């Protein structure tokens, strides 16, 4: 007499559930880390684009504007996504829990104008520290107008 099996036994189902649980416990932290890396990379790219657009705007127009969104679509996008807030001549760039992780500003004098960047206090926020490590302060200040700019 042949016995036909049409279902899984309880033991087989428990083993499958345990294996899926082990795989999930390994995969979920990896996915979270990948998402965080992507956010840092996207924001760093937006900051670099904003700096380049603001420099190009100033060189082409010969002057800066008080509203950074008028000089850069990247700034406009960061503000729209609540990743940045402009206060006076400083653009505070938010990362995770730090509202001023990076500070992009235009410092002007009578003859010169420079785009500068400063780091805020990251504290224990690892995402803010990652963003700060991605943006090279040595690339700043960027001269926008003055005796170092040739038109």
Summarize the structure in short:
This protein has about 150 residues and is an alpha+beta fold.
Characterise the protein shown here:
Helix 1 (10-61) packs across helix 2 and helix 1 crosses helix 3. The protein has a five-stranded antiparallel sheet. With 151 residues, it is an alpha+beta fold. The chain has helices spanning 10-61, 73-80, 126-134; strands spanning 84-87, 90-95, 98-108, 113-119, 142-145.
Keywords:
5 strands, about 150 residues, alpha+beta, single chain, five-stranded antiparallel beta sheet, about 45% helix, rod-shaped
The count of DSSP E runs of length 2 or more, i.e. the number of strands, is 5
Radius of gyration: 25 Å
Structural class: alpha+beta
| Proportion of residues in extended strands | 15-25%
| Uncertain segments | none
Shape summary: rod-shaped
Listing every helix as H and every strand as E from the N terminus to the C terminus, the arrangement reads HHEEEEHE
Q: What percent of residues adopt helix (DSSP H or I)?
A: 40-55%
- Distance between the first and last residues' Cα: 95 Å
Q: How would you write the strand order of the largest sheet?
A: 1-2-3-4-5
Tally of alpha and pi helices: 3
Question: Could you report the average pLDDT, rounded to the nearest whole number?
Answer: 85
